[in-house]
């Protein structure tokens, strides 16, 4: 009677070890680190080969160190248990940004206090997690100064555009710099000046790519009535400030603080999918908190009325949680409302066009009659829809739920949403970090306090059908008996050389949206084209027009799920 049970136990152990990939269990996630410590600062990014790299500041009783881990598209942890050391110097290191390079690795930036005052350091890791620069990183700048990183975005060519605060003569300034993968500064020494002479620490509310090798960001300045004005600026791929010396004014209405009021503040910013951005903010100009929307186009012009367009119901208490842009350039706005007489919340979702027009007849209620929730997040499903995640209590049974909506506002998963993850206890930094899975699902990084050692980090995947841990649309495996590599990427450019018009044919390994970016010989972007829902293993052709360009050498870069390839094009007129 004993032997059958022994056999079953052996089989279960074998199956478990053979599938150490994405978890299909809401009570388990892929462990990134369980060393403990409290107050992890955690961020993640997708690499050029489809893996996910996670970075965090590991806290201890003495200081914080920077660690990193990599998980492949199948959910397999690639680097050593609990991550590789990025910087373990004395004093604190506070992670700021992770930027993917063009060959499957990443560059990590952080604020470093090893010399007393903060300065910005960097380290480049290859796809195996091996440091490519000096141990514990190198300073980004030759001369030391009091600098703290704000954020960074990819320049689309393996490098980074960095934004930071700098203390100069007891006043703060904002600067930006473009850095290549070797750590070389490409713009003016010391960076491009954005704004100088701030008495208070600059409040930067968002940084996004302009999708042409530059960045867009938003910051706040205090006004006489103790409220804040909000401005945005775009810096292009050459380091030129594009929206005037002061930037685009998002809102400078000085309504003043009210008793028990939230005042005025930016709550969300996201790219519009082109070279502009959406902004949403809360103010009390109507004596009650209300949400306003603004859009700035690539030239820095406001698309909506001065000081924003009202988009919330002023008869209810309203707050904004998150923004995300759809694959068609429309804006999803996630927030919550409650009546002034009750403390019960409704999580709502709405869709807007660039002109501020509501696309849906009315907001969708994602969750109703919620007594308490701890976070609400949205991410594009890359198919004109959106996936919503929310963290709900009680504290004794914390859960993350998820729901997917299409562009017509219809829910695509179970009515009550998908039970995504269970948390035993939240730590100080419990905010979710979410990215697309490369198809129509999402990958989520979350923290959980599971024992007395402190906070751990965990990663989970949900696909477009609402299934946990089941990958969809992965690249097909290469036949082990075949000696030929699959024909993928750019298969032809015709004619080449060209007099201005050329057809680029390509094949992708998985279905998805691809981008074709044309660079000139000095790395400037001259053309960007996107093509959605490209079928796998089928030749697709895109026509490009370079008739406005001068003769010379150009580079065609094709990027998409699990593909990143560049080929040369000659223009002869």
Walkthrough of the structure:
Helix content is 3%, strand content 48%. With 573 residues, the chain is mainly beta. Among the domains are: 39-201, Tachylectin-2, Chain A; 489-571, Immunoglobulin-like, CATH 2.60.40.2550. It has a four-stranded antiparallel beta sheet with strand order 1-32-31-30, with no helix packed on it. Strands 2-3-4-5 form a four-stranded antiparallel beta sheet, with no helix packed on it. The longest helix has 16 residues, at 3-18. It is globular.
Primary descriptors:
mainly beta; Tachylectin-2, Chain A; Immunoglobulin-like; 48% strand; disordered N terminus
Q: From the structure provided, what is the oligomeric state, counting identical versus distinct chains? A: single chain
How much of the sequence lies in strands comes to over 45%
| Overall form | globular
Sheet with most strands: strand arrangement: 1-32-31-30
């Amino acid at each position: 009677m004993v032997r059958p049970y022994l056999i079953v136990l052996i089989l279960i152990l074998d199956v478990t070890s053979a599938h150490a990939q994405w978890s299909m269990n809401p009570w388990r996630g892929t462990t990134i680190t369980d060393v403990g410590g409290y107050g992890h600062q955690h961020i993640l990014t997708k690499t050029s080969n489809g893996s996910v790299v996670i970075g965090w500041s590991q806290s201890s009783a003495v200081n914080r160190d920077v660690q990193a881990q990599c998980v492949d598209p199948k959910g397999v942890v690639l680097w050593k248990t609990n991550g590789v050391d990025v910087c373990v110097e004395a004093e604190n290191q506070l992670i700021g940004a992770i930027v993917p390079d063009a060959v499957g690795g990443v560059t990590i930036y952080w604020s470093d206090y090893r010399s007393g005052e903060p300065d910005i350091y960097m380290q480049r890791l290859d796809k195996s997690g091996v440091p490519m620069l000096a141990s514990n990183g190198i300073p980004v700048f030759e001369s030391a100064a009091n600098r703290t990183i704000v954020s960074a975005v990819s320049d689309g060519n393996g490098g980074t555009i960095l934004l930071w605060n700098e203390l100069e003569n007891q006043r703060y300034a904002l600067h930006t710099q473009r850095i290549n993968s070797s750590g070389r500064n490409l713009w003016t020494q010391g960076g491009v000046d954005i704004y100088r002479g701030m008495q208070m620490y600059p409040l930067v509310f968002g940084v996004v790519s302009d999708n042409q090798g530059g960045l867009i960001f938003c910051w706040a300045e205090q006004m006489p009535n103790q409220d804040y004005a909000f401005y945005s600026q775009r810096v292009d791929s050459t380091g030129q400030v594009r929206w005037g010396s002061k930037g685009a004014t998002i809102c400078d209405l000085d309504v003043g603080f009210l008793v028990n009021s939230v005042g005025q503040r930016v709550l969300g910013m996201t790219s519009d999918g082109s070279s502009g951005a959406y902004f949403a903010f809360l103010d009390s100009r109507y004596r009650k908190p209300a949400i306003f929307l603004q859009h700035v186009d690539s030239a820095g012009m406001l698309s909506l009325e001065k000081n924003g367009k009202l988009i919330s119901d002023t008869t209810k208490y309203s707050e904004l949680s998150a923004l995300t842009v759809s694959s068609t350039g429309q804006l999803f706005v996630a927030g919550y409302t409650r009546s002034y007489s009750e403390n019960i919340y409704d999580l709502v979702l709405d869709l807007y066009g660039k002109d501020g027009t509501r696309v849906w007849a009315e907001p969708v209620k994602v969750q109703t009659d919620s007594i308490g929730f701890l976070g609400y997040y949205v991410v594009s499903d890359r198919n004109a829809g959106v996936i919503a995640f929310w963290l709900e209590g009680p504290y004794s049974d914390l859960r993350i739920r998820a729901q997917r909506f299409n562009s017509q506002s219809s829910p695509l998963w179970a009515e009550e949403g998908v039970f995504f993850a269970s948390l035993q206890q939240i730590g100080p930094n419990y905010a979710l970090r979410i990215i697309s899975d490369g198809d129509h699902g999402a990958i989520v990084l979350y923290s959980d306090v599971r024992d007395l050692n402190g906070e751990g980090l965990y990663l989970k995947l949900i696909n477009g059908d609402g299934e946990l841990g089941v990958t969809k649309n992965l690249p097909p495996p290469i036949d082990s008996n075949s000696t030929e590599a699959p024909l993928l990427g750019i298969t032809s450019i015709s004619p080449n050389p060209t007099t201005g018009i050329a057809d680029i044919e390509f094949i992708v390994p998985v279905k998805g949206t691809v981008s074709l970016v044309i660079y000139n010989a000095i790395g400037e972007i001259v053309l960007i084209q996107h093509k959605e829902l490209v079928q796998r293993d089928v030749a697709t052709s895109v026509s490009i027009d370079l008739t406005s360009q001068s003769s010379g050498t150009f580079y065609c870069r094709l990027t998409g799920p699990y593909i990143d390839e560049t080929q040369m094009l000659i223009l002869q007129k």
